[in-house]
Design brief:
alpha/beta; Four Helix Bundle (Hemerythrin (Met), subunit A); Rossmann fold; 434 Repressor (Amino-terminal Domain); 3 domains; 8-stranded mixed beta sheet; 20 helices; about 55% helix; flat; binds guanosine-5'-diphosphate; binds magnesium ion; signal recognition particle; 7S RNA binding; ribonucleoprotein
């Protein structure tokens, strides 16, 4: 990735005062290769690199930096800007300011994630997640409808998703015309005072004139305030052509980039933004309905740069970790108390709360996520459940004084939790590792640990 590539050349040439053709040449070549590796399409890469060069040449290099470090700064800034940072802080917000119902039309190829995203968005709006910057503008009454008449299973799929999201579903059937479905749904939404109507549509496996015509007709009829182009991040370079076709066929208002929980490095975000000029509004990060996040240009820039999406990682962890528990633990550490198996159990419970570990691990910097990708997350959660079983089979006293755990007690606990004694020993040695880490943390302080993590 870019960080690895750049760090090789970033250290050279200390002591130069300005960025020049000569001292940026190697770096710019690495930038170019890294972007191609991140699946940004070639013409976009070319233009980006020439933009960076233009901005960089003549820039002063601050005293403490090498020209390489200064150039990374320019790259990061420019990448953030092109990802949508140039559109201002509100670009990724949905517009719902319309005489209700505010209509959202979903467009994209088959399999891009339209139906799933319809459910995710519906849930997000119904829960009031659209209220930005802490201003709660309230939960929305949402209706969803499927105009996918080619695959009866698609209508069923949306019905299931709507039930999971807890929003209203307008039945439709494969023998109706898409436009009739849309008209009925709009009429129903008006009569029942829905705030938002989300219209899911059919997609084809490739770009297809009949599909484009159909969705154009739906657009003309519904006059949606949002027309969202849903695109699979795994398409990589091919995302360019698909985005171009949809952008020419429809007045898009925004983009949703799905399946970012996979291997995609996010280069498609840059390409799609480049060809459509439209803001990315959301990213899909899991198959589950909770796996939708507002788009953040600077975070996506960091992902492409391979620096890891630290910001959203921290945010996600904060959401998941029970603040009370964490504070109790911190207070205990400060008081110099011993970290015991009761604390260990609390930590394991928190790990479980963090939910889909794989989406979390994905956001770590490359050197960590490489290791993390070798962790089977299903296996890991099975392991966590077994550890909890063991801990629950102990008495409070045993957890507070692990040194009590001699052979006979271990045999009792093994029988109680249905695991072999070796597994208890394995867990105890993991606990001891954690205990010594806690001691070090207390000695060295949090700052030291964070620095170690930051590399
Ligand atoms: P549609 O044909 O455009 O309606 O696409 P679907 O919503 O049916 O999604 C196609 C497949 O992609 C399904 O298996 C979804 O579960 C999956 N999917 C959609 N969004 C995401 C995402 O953000 N992450 C992951 N991992 N899978 C997704
Ligand atoms: Mg669908």
């Amino acid at each position: 990735n870019l960080t690895n590539r750049l760090s090789r050349v970033v250290k050279t040439l200390r002591g130069e005062a300005r960025l020049t053709e000569a001292n940026t040449q190697d770096m710019l070549r690495e930038v170019r290769l890294a972007l191609l590796e991140a699946d940004v399409s070639l013409p976009v890469v070319r233009e980006f690199v020439s933009r960076v060069k233009e901005k960089a040449l003549g820039e002063e290099v601050a005293n403490s930096l090498t020209p390489g470090q200064a150039l990374v700064g320019v790259v990061h800034k420019e990448l953030t800007s092109l990802m949508g940072g140039d559109l201002g802080p509100h670009a990724s917000e949905l517009s719902l300011a319309q005489q209700p119902p505010a209509i959202i039309l979903m467009a994209g190829l088959q399999g891009s994630g339209k139906t799933t995203t319809t459910g995710k968005l519906a849930r997000w709006l119904a829960e009031g997640g659209h209220s930005q910057n802490g201003h709660k503008s309230g939960k929305k009454k949402v209706l969803v409808v499927s105009a996918d008449v080619y695959r009866p299973a698609a209508i069923e799929q949306l019905k299931t998703v709507a039930a999971q999201a807890g929003v209203d579903f307008m039945p439709s059937s494969a023998d109706q015309k898409p436009e009739d479905i849309a008209r009925n749904a709009l009429d129903f939404a008006k009569r029942h005072h829905h705030d938002v109507l989300i219209v899911d549509t059919a997609g084809r496996l490739g770009i297809d004139e009949a599909m484009m015509q159909e969705i154009r007709a739906l657009h003309a009829l519904l006059k949606p305030i949002e027309t969202l182009f849903v695109v699979d991040a795994m398409l990589g370079q091919d995302a360019v052509n698909v985005a171009k076709a949809f952008n020419e066929a429809l007045p898009l208002t925004g983009v949703v980039l799905t399946k970012l929980d996979g291997d995609a490095r996010g280069g498609a975000a840059l390409s799609v933004r480049h060809v459509t000029g439209k803001p990315l509004k959301f990213v899909g990060v899991s198959e589950k309905l909770a796996g939708l996040e507002p788009f953040h240009p600077e975070r996506m820039a960091q992902r492409v740069l391979g620096m890891g999406d630290i910001l959203s990682l921290v945010e996600e962890a904060q959401k998941a970790i029970n603040v009370d528990e964490a504070q109790k633990l911190a207070a205990k550490m400060k008081a110099g108390d011993k970290f015991d198996l009761n604390d260990f159990r609390a930590q394991i419970a928190q790990m479980k709360n963090m939910g889909d570990m794989s989406s979390l691990l994905e956001k770590l910097p490359a050197q960590f996520s490489q290791a993390a990708s070798q962790v089977d997350s299903k296996q890991a959660s099975r392991q966590i459940r077994r550890m909890e079983g063991i801990l629950n089979s102990m008495t409070e006293m045993e957890r507070a004084k692990p040194e009590l755990l001699k052979a006979s007690r271990k045999r009792r606990i093994a029988a109680g939790s249905g695991v072999p004694v070796q597994e208890i020993n394995r867990m105890l040695s993991q606990f001891e590792q954690m205990q010594s880490m806690m001691k070090q943390m207390k000695k060295g302080g949090m700052a030291k640990m964070m620095r170690a993590m930051g590399g």
